[in-house]
Design a protein that fits this description.
By secondary structure, this protein is of the alpha/beta class. The strands form 2 sheets. Strands 4-3-2-1-9-10-11 form a 7-stranded mixed sheet, sandwiched between helices. A 4-stranded antiparallel sheet has the order 5-6-8-7, with helices on one face. The radius of gyration is 18 Å and the shape is globular. The site of magnesium ion has 7 residues, from loops.
């Protein structure tokens, strides 16, 4: 497929009834907050997601680095299908059971070392399968945070790896990523047999992009082209929400 044909999908909803939507949350559906706990859904987002979930017969998932509990808090009262902690947690059906395996014991040890060594101003979020260190409030700490996270990870690097996102260094359990989350959801109804479309804004979404492109689907980058240049792109979460609103109207 050439690039202009790829980009045309943003304006052409003629086949959208067969899509399965995979949506990152922070930086894609909602603006990135100064602290993760302060993130809120803007007015109008929840009804649009609810309408799309219905129009797509349930094939809409939120795929986030947050835990699914945290995703549910932001999108309440919805409990959409989705993947939390980059795919460590999975929920296939709206309001359904969350599959939440135990994190490997190495993650406890890494978390303890991270918490013990992080500089003041960095915010540590221990989610179980992943440990995020945010330095959005203190960007000058970037190199210190990255070096100390690498040191905290080193003794257990066979179990986990670090991923550098926007103002965050995140340790993730090996073998878990958003691409595998897409594959797991696409294996079963209501996703199976549909054309997957993934919207994301950060490096951690690249695995999801690769998974949907392997399946003949569409990857839509949100924001600047610091990663995954070329292809369909929406400028920011506001543009994403307007696009989703247009899609919902087209499917109604
Ligand atoms: Mg994001």
């Amino acid at each position: 497929m050439n690039v202009s044909a790829m980009i045309a999908m943003l304006d052409d909803f003629s086949r959208a009834a067969d899509w399965a939507l995979f949506l990152d949350l922070d930086g894609t559906l909602i603006d990135i907050a100064s602290e993760p706990a302060k993130a809120r859904a803007p007015a109008g987002l929840v009804p649009v997601l609810e309408g799309l979930h219905r129009s797509l017969h349930g094939a809409l998932a939120v795929v986030s680095g947050r835990s699914l509990d945290d995703v549910d808090r932001i999108l309440q009262p919805l409990k959409l299908p989705g993947a939390g902690q980059h795919g460590a947690e999975l929920r296939r059906l709206r309001g359904g059971r969350v599959l939440r395996p135990r994190p490997p014991s190495a993650m406890r040890r890494i978390a303890e070392r991270v918490i013990a060594t992080m500089p003041e101003g960095a915010l540590v979020e221990d989610k179980g399968h992943s440990i995020a260190v945010h330095y959005r409030r203190a960007p000058h700490l970037k190199r210190t945070v990255q070096a100390r996270v690498a040191r905290a990870l080193a003794p257990d690097r066979r179990e986990a790896h670090v991923l550098h996102g926007k103002m965050v260094a995140e340790v993730k359990t090996n073998g878990i990523d958003k691409g595998r989350a897409v594959d797991a959801l696409m294996a079963l109804p209501p996703f199976r047999g549909r054309v997957p479309v993934f919207l994301g804004d950060d490096r951690t979404d690249e695995d999801g992009f690769a998974a949907v492109l392997r399946r003949g689907g569409h990857a839509v980058r949100v924001g600047d082209d610091s990663f995954f240049p070329g292809g369909p792109c929406l400028a920011d979460p506001d543009a994403v929400r307007r696009w989703l609103g247009a899609l919902r109207n087209a499917l109604d």
